[in-house]
Amino acid sequence: MATVKGEIMRKVRSRREPQEMLSEYDFSGGVRGKYAGRFEKGTIMVVLNPDVAEIFPDPKSVNKALRALGQIIGTALQ
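User: That's the sequence. What structure does it adopt?
Assistant: Structure tokens below.
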């Protein structure tokens, strides 16, 4: 950031028009919301790092571990 007379100034970002989609991206056969039904309302999607994903093979094991951790934290705060 630059300063003018002691005041901090933010950089101005240019407002460029979005570029056209490249021709190799063909979504003409795509279906909007095809997999949306797989997720319940209120579901929070989290991406695990590969090393963590090795420990937890499925969503059930992740939820079980997080519930146990939540109980430990809740007990420690009491």
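Helices lie at 50-55, 59-77.
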